[in-house]
Design a protein that fits this description.
By secondary structure, the chain is an alpha+beta fold. It is built from 15 helices and 17 strands. It binds protoporphyrin IX containing FE.
């Protein structure tokens, strides 16, 4: 009897599970929804989407389901729209950029979107205030460096690279990376000797954020295992802390060098001398991150097309000869410079065709939608990831006839769909789909183009790039066309090739040039230091650091609250604001109504008295005075305060507070849930410099950022 009951219960549960599964299956495969491969409830297509060369599977699906320019798939509950046509990307990511410019969470990084104020990875940040101000700053630094022709750094490093290739050609893959790393380390911290570590750190971050990196990026629930049995989280904690400490150390070293007058033009000097006075960047920590991130992102990106240039040239000797002829005609006995670019269309065409033929961000970088939307009659829910699938854009046979082959003439000869005049300006890689879309479009297009012109131009001037021959059999060693890593940003796997100097004269000239540049650089540095010691020119004093002020960057207090809950509001003064909430949801603290209506983040850098006042507009003011920031490291603290005030330190295991205590940051998340509230946060005893250096509103309104596109 008991057995029979068990069997009946078991059968019943099985039937319930099957019915539930069928219902879920129908839901995730709605015949009226966006076309795409059949989805398995909860899993999506995680079972047959390969981690290696994922873009090839995406392309297979694109050919099958992407007739309308997009298709849909799922991964462990996350919705994806894979965009396969440029027009659709334009519609969704440019025209609707206002609410399609967020980023998905990257599970294996702490606070990848900076939702909790980590402020670390600009390209991965959500569509929030940190992103807006860091993008503005990065854009202005990159533009200024471009105008100043990168302070000569690119020529210097490319000359060094040519000499290294002559002396040690076998090491070419390492020396490419080191060259682009040295360029970035000079632009960032005026110190090329940092390149080795910086490159390592760049690949470390890239691996951590890629689907082909830690398994926790795909099997995301694993990330939430307790830290003791979670090797992925422990490894990331170590990587992260080392990287952040290194960035901070760079900034502090630059400050010391600046004070001694030893720092030449670079982005950190620009920040210390000028920007720190009038920026919304919150302080040293954030500055070290935004500048450090720029250095990293400029390494693993440029390495791809620079390496694929070698592949293109080895496989297409006719085009190599054409580039060499053009460079010889224009530059004669010297290496190409940026001012030669208008007269080097074949070089530019081959660079652009290399990027089209072998795109180094083949899947594209996902945006995330911030609002429900409809497109071509289909519903796109908030939180959907939109993947602008670059491999597909660049293999569209209508725009790029014969897409599988290297055809630079498509940029040079009238009659091809992509031909554009004047040839002094076009082809240019600026605006290529590989650099992304809308408000999140890449900021490094000019830098990439310039570095490729100087670097690839120098290669064409100095070398014949050839297959290497096996010394025993005499046979050509293969240079594979389709072997690469599978990270978000790719580069070819190691291979062998020959760098044959075009003539003995050019070889001598390249070595002489490098010796001369190196000697000049050393002499300049020594002169600079001598002058400093003798108290002569070029001693740059850092301006006095002003007392940081509290800021509320959001222009409208209402904007931070879900629109339906808000009935206007006003900013009373710099530090306080009023929000009127007209509707409440159930739940909330202490059983009283009130979903999360507002929250603010305060950074308290050192011990300080602060006063936080929360007042219900319709009753007495509740005050919690003199909260001392003495309990460092305590993860959560509840303040006994009527009016359903809750505040806590934002130090949960998943919420990455930038090295609390160590680097001087100590953010407090403040939330309040009253029906109608005003809040005042102030520093009661500003006894120490920089005690409070940031008061932000979070979530951050996305309106008003369009101007930054
Ligand atoms: C081959 C070279 C490069 C490629 C293919 C590339 C590609 C991209 C892509 C696809 C994005 C995301 C766009 C989107 O979400 O729609 C991006 C963002 C970005 N790139 Fe590049 N990039 C390159 C070089 C560089 C360089 C040299 C720098 C600067 C040193 C740079 C700085 C950035 C920054 C700061 C962002 C973040 C923009 C934002 O989130 O608002 N990139 N890049």
């Amino acid at each position: 009897m008991q057995l029979l009951t068990l069997v009946i219960v078991g059968l019943f549960m099985l039937i319930v599970a099957v019915v539930h599964f069928i219902k879920a299956f129908r839901e995730v495969n709605d015949p009226n929804g966006i076309p795409g491969p059949t989805q398995i409830p909860y899993l999506g297509r995680v079972h047959d989407l390969p981690i290696q060369f994922m873009w090839l599977k995406f392309k297979e699906w694109a050919d099958k389901y992407g007739q309308q320019g997009f298709y849909r798939t799922m991964m462990l509950g996350a919705e994806f729209i894979v965009v396969t046509d440029e027009k659709v990307a334009e519609d969704l990511l440019v025209k609707r950029a206002k609410y399609n410019s967020d980023r998905p969470v990257i599970q294996s990084l702490f606070d990848s979107k900076s939702t909790h104020g980590s402020m670390e990875y600009l390209p991965l940040m959500g569509h929030n205030t940190y992103w807006a101000r860091q993008r503005k700053l990065s854009h202005s630094y990159l533009t200024e460096a471009t105008k100043a022709q990168y302070y000569g750094v690119m020529y210097f490093e490319v000359q060094r690279w040519m000499a290294r290739l002559l002396e040690n050609p076998e090491d070419f893959q390492h020396s490419i990376e080191d060259m682009s790393s040295k360029v970035m380390c000079q632009l960032t911290w005026d110190d090329p000797s940092l390149s080795e570590y910086c490159t390592k750190s760049a690949w470390g971050l890239l691996t951590q954020m890629s689907p082909a990196g830690p398994i926790t990026n795909v099997l995301t629930p694993l990330w939430h295992l307790p830290i003791l049995i979670n090797p992925w989280k422990r490894a990331e904690r170590k990587r992260h802390d080392e990287q952040q400490a290194w960035w901070m150390e760079r900034l502090l070293t630059c400050r010391e060098k600046l004070a001694r007058g030893e720092l030449r033009p670079c982005w950190t000097r620009q920040f210390l001398e000028k920007t720190s006075q009038k920026t919304s960047i919150s302080g040293d920590y954030e500055a070290s991150c935004v500048i450090g991130m720029l250095a990293l992102v400029g390494i693993f990106t440029v390495v791809g097309p620079m390496s694929y240039w070698l592949v293109s040239m080895v496989h297409n000797p006719k085009w190599q000869e054409a580039v060499q002829r053009e460079v010889d005609e224009v530059c004669g006995n010297r290496m190409p410079r940026l001012e030669d670019a208008p007269r080097l269309p074949i070089l530019r065409a081959c660079i652009k065709e290399t990027m089209r033929w072998k795109p180094n961000v083949p899947t594209g970088v996902a945006h995330e939608t911030e609002a429900d939307d409809h497109y071509q009659g289909y519903f796109i829910p908030k939180g959907t990831r939109i993947l602008p699938f670059d491999w597909s854009f660049l293999r569209n046979p209508v725009k790029y006839p014969d897409p599988e082959n290297f055809r630079p003439e498509r940029w040079l000869e009238p009659g091809w769909p992509t031909y554009k005049e004047p040839l002094t300006q076009y082809p240019t890689i600026k605006g290529l789909t590989s650099f992304g879309w809308g408000q999140r479009q890449c900021l490094g297009m000019s830098l990439t183009q310039d570095e490729l012109i100087v670097g690839c131009g120098a290669l064409a001037w100095l070398f014949n790039l050839r297959h290497k021959r096996d010394p025993v059999t005499g046979r050509e060693l293969p240079v594979p066309l389709d072997r690469s890593n599978s990270l978000l940003i790719i580069k070819p796997d190691p291979f062998q090739m020959e760098f044959e100097p075009r003539s003995e004269e050019r070889k001598k000239e390249a070595l002489r040039l490098w010796k001369e540049s190196e000697a000049k650089d050393r002499a300049r540095r020594e002169r600079w230091l001598r002058n400093v010691k003798e108290g002569k020119a070029n001693v740059i004093k850092e301006p006095k650091v002003a007392q940081p002020t509290l800021k509320i960057p959001s222009p409208s207090p209402a904007a931070a609250v879900p629109a339906a809950l808000v009935d206007g509001g006003e900013v009373r003064d710099g530090f306080s604001k009023t929000v009127q909430v007209v509707e409440e949801k159930s739940g909330g603290v202490n059983g009283h109504g009130g979903s999360l209506a507002e929250k603010a983040v305060i950074d308290v850098k050192k011990e300080a008295d602060i006063s936080i006042t929360i007042a219900r507009l319709d009753s007495t003011a509740y005050e919690s005075k003199g909260l001392r920031n003495e309990k460092r490291g305590k993860p959560t603290r509840q303040v006994d305060c009527p009016g359903r005030l809750q505040w806590r330190r934002e130090c949960g295991a998943d919420q990455n507070v930038p090295s609390p205590g160590r680097l001087g940051h100590d953010p407090i998340l403040l939330t309040w849930t009253t029906a109608a509230a005003s809040i005042r946060v102030s520093q009661r005893a500003p006894s120490r410099l920089g005690a409070i250096d940031r008061l932000d509103r979070d979530p951050i309104p996305n309106r008003g950022l369009d101007a930054l596109a």
